[in-house]
Amino acid sequence: MTTIPVKLDVDSLRALKSVADHGGVTRAAHHLSLSQSAISHKIKRLEDHIDCRLLNRRSGLPLLTDTGERLLGYANRILALHDEAAATLSRRTLAGNIRMGMTEDMTSSGLAQVLARFARVFPDVSVRVHVAQSQVLQEEVENAAIDLGVMQVFAQDVRPDDTVLFRHRLCWAKAKDFDLPDDGPVPFLAYDDRCFYKAWLVENAGTMGRAFRTVLECSSNAGILAGIDAGLGVSIVNEEHLSATMEEVSGDVFRTPPDIAYVVRLAAKPASNAVGALRDGIAQEAGEGEILKIAL
């Protein structure tokens, strides 16, 4: 018995990927510069072709159905090959200089592999990267000092134009053998004077009315984790960084910090038309979830 092959439209697959990347139809529409009805139509067309639901329409359920998650995996690979072929074979060659910033914990995330592949596909584009704290990168993007930043923001501060790579939970952490003082200031480890975790602590009374004193300022993630392990005090860290010698401080001791999102944020007027292609390449790797992971 011969079956009629299902045709998967590339634009519809891109709509599905954007919905998954940005957390919904509204943000996907904004990202792709389309109307919400256009995005919904593309998703419906995919569903009709494969005769399966791809999105859960009821609140409280995951955004994508099991079938939607499976198709998303194929969509990521199809779009990556499609875009690489289009970029490589197109007569319209991208060129120019890109100024990029990233946080320290992204330097060992596999982002170098993404940049290397981007350089092979677009040999006429020069990318210059520097490392800084997220708060600094946000200001540099706002002031157009860089064209794009790969950085952390609090989940509630994600913008419609941001490309979300992944989300994580923040927690208070200490060494298992470190005892919090019963009274007096809480010893706190901060990334540096531009640490936006510390800024949140100050603005939101994160120590629940107790005073705190900074015992270590270090812009290196490895330095903060080493300080926690050594028993210097407590800090706010990504839960992915908790080691076997650390433990989370319970929520009734300190105020629970908000979740964070790792995003790619573009300047309002990037200096090069290649910036969008680089952003899409980074987002593609994050979607596949193999290479682009934060350094632990």
Automatic annotation (TrEMBL):
HTH lysR-type domain boundaries: 8-65
Gene3D superfamilies (UniProt xref): Periplasmic binding protein-like II, Winged helix-like DNA-binding domain superfamily/Winged helix DNA-binding domain
Keyword Transcription included in the entry's annotation: yes
Matching InterPro entries: LTTR (IPR050176), LysR_HTH_N (IPR000847), LysR_subst-bd (IPR005119), WH-like_DNA-bd_sf (IPR036388), WH_DNA-bd_sf (IPR036390)
Pfam families reported in the protein's UniProt record: HTH_1, LysR_substrate
GO molecular function, one term: DNA binding
TM region(s), chain numbering: none
Keyword line: DNA-binding, Transcription, Transcription regulation
Keyword Transcription: yes
Family: Belongs to the LysR transcriptional regulatory family.
Protein name: LysR family transcriptional regulator
Species: Hwanghaeella grinnelliae
